[in-house]
Amino acid sequence: MGKFINKLQLDLLKRHVFPFLFCFFTLMFLLLMQFLILHIDKLIGKDIPLTVIAELIITNLAYMVVLAAPMAVLVATLMAYGKFSELNELTALRSSGVNPLNIIKPVLITSGLLFVGLAWFSNNVLPEANQKARSLFIDIRVKKPGFDLKPNIFYDGIEGYTFLVEEIDNETDSLYNITLFQEPKNNKDQAYIIAEKGALVSKGSQALEMHLINGYSLSFIPPRRNVDESIERNAFQKHIMTLDLSDLAFMRSDPSDRNQSDRTMGAKAMFAVVDSLNKEIDQQVNTLVENPALYPINADSRKESFFAPNLVLPDSTRKATYVASNYLIPNQFQKVGIQQELVKESIRQAKQYKSKVESINANVEWRKKRINRFLVEIHKKLSIPFACVVFILFGAPVGIMTKQGNFGMAALISTVVLTFYWISLIQGEKLADRMYISPFVGMWTFNIVLSLAGIYLIIHLTTGFSIKDLFTNRD
Fold first, then answer.
1. pLDDT digits (tens, 9 = 90+) for 71-113
2. Among 75, 108, 28, 130, which Cα is nearest to 381's?
3. Whole-prediction pTM
4. Is residue 84 within 8 Å of residue 400, measured between CB atoms?
5. Within its chain, how far is the Cα of 211 from the centroid?
6. How many other C-beta atoms are found inside a 10 Å radius of the C-beta of residue 70?
7. Domain range list for the chain
8. CB 130 within 8 A of CB 263
């Protein structure tokens, strides 16, 4: 019997492989297409090297792996156990006295190993990939479009020049009726150039020569020593200009030089930031405690008043109106002017204190929100990979109960479950970021609910126990 069960367990594991790989790569393809559709407009028209585009795609594949793996696990589990139940193998297994839980254990253990691997990947590989992808996106965003002249359209992509060309022959790179404005930059005078014809000659990726034929130029010479500003007109049969294209080249920056966010940090680094933010909150609160709103002065000290430096406190105080306090009160003074000054000063200090409290409260609130964002990301690094285990707990009994191992049924159930799963995850993240719920509740609620549902279904399959049994009256 032991050998039979081992062979059966191995067979079930093998049944997961093809559906898992098929679904995983299908989802990766769909996520990749979604990524390209969203960002294709940022990549075209800028002469970005193909190697850079390939690197951008590869670095973004990291987050796709973390998302696609748990979804593929759910589909594979539903198909494998649905097929197992469809062929009545479960009935034969039960008649042999084998607990159905034994056929779930090896797959559950495998999902645990997958969870560990994905959690490591999410904490160590994904942040670095996100940082590189983010750096590449910024480099691509700031890159200027390549040199691209179009007929009857002003082009100012090269610093210091503005071009206008009436006609372009794309086959020979010939230009006709050229107008060029040269700005007074880089040791060059302001100039206005007109030519009947021209041609473009490439000088590598950093330079371009423009050969102008049959034209003239107007150069505006700025005033120099003992010479007023003047205009020079020069006719030419051929004039060669060298244009610097280095500003149009794609420049890579070092990802480590850019600031890191919660998506580009590992759990250890985020815990360090959280600890630092908590210390800053403590400092803000201590600052508030150490600076009270009013300054206490002993009423019996005979010392000069803080509010009335030239006044000595009277020997007798009005006991009837005296309030037991460490602070001076207006009734201790007989002069109305001093009382008014005291009240005005108290109001000023109260407003100043209120402003300080509001400022500290805003600073503390901002730091608490940052702490929540980091804690949400830390929990997410575990909760999404742990979905591999959750989907086995839920998918195995559901697949057995459906008794259908086809892809259509598995896809239908997976779509419903995953829709609710991702909605709960996204909304949980938003609510936790806004401090309505804790990061743990936001990231783990659906995992816990689905796990409990899966455990209940497994118990129901193995023992026949049902919730309604708890409410059934027994003699």
1. 999 999 988 888 877 766 666 666 666 676 777 888 889 999 9
2. 130
3. 0.67
4. yes
5. 48
6. 22
7. 2-143+379-424+438-468, 161-248, 263-374
8. yes
